[in-house]
Amino acid sequence: MALRTVPRPLLDFADSLEIASFTYPVVETFHSIQGEGFWFGTAAFFIRLAGCDVGCPWCDTKISWNPKRHPQVSVGQLRDQVQVAQPKIIVITGGEPLMHDLYPLTTGLKETGLPLHLETSGAHPLSGHFDWLTLSPKPFKAPLPEIYDHVSELKVVIDQATDFQWAETQAQKIAAEIPQYLQPQWENPASQSLIFDYILAHPEWRLGLQTHKFLGVR
């Protein structure tokens, strides 16, 4: 499958040192496996940025919502951490990463030579240069229209039966060949059986599990 790239304009930075000194509020970084979606099982370095205004009531990372509660970390420091870890891919997640200008971050991280992945709700303008974009749209704050042309995979969280209608409206906005996942809401076991039955009747969808939670790892 060919990777999709988000276009990046020319940056107005004096040199690479200025990019390296640019900072972001970071909740955590960690080296683990990608537990979800198309790249499941791949060694990944995760950078979880702080800040989110989507407001999912069942969010499992509410600690990330307020960016003021987390330290500022430079692009250079993040790049150094990636180079020590030597993963297969880099995943920028949140929170909602697109609340920040991601061009400096992705410019600095591209120096590692590793593919850059973004996990986003799509509710803010697209920025940065990515090789893979996971869209996880939320009805609480819908994606911006321009995001859909850049989607590499679609992941919709299902909490109750009415969420399937939201999932279908989102699937209609992306190309037919894009992988589509329905992910159970972790704190609602009943959502698993809802998805199981739905996929049997709608085989264009795939079951998306948070396997890292089953394994008890980040």
Notes on the protein architecture:
This protein is of the alpha/beta class. It has one domain: TIM Barrel, CATH 3.20.20. The protein is 23% helix and 22% strand. The chain contains 6 helices and 9 strands; from the N terminus they run αβββαβαβββαβαβα. It has helices at residues 16-21, 75-85, 103-109, 163-171, 190-201, 211-215; strands at residues 23-33, 43-49, 72-74, 89-93, 116-120, 132-135, 153-158, 180-184, 206-207. A 9-stranded mixed sheet has the order 3-1-2-4-5-6-7-8-9. Helix 2 packs parallel to helix 3 (103-109). The protein starts with 15 loop residues before the first helix and ends with a helix.
Strand and helix map with partners:
Elements: H1 16-21, E1 23-33, E2 43-49, E3 72-74, H2 75-85, E4 89-93, H3 103-109, E5 116-120, E6 132-135, E7 153-158, H4 163-171, E8 180-184, H5 190-201, E9 206-207, H6 211-215
Parallel strand pairs: 2-4, 4-5, 5-6, 6-7, 7-8, 8-9
Antiparallel strand pairs: 1-2, 1-3
Helix pairs in contact: 2-3
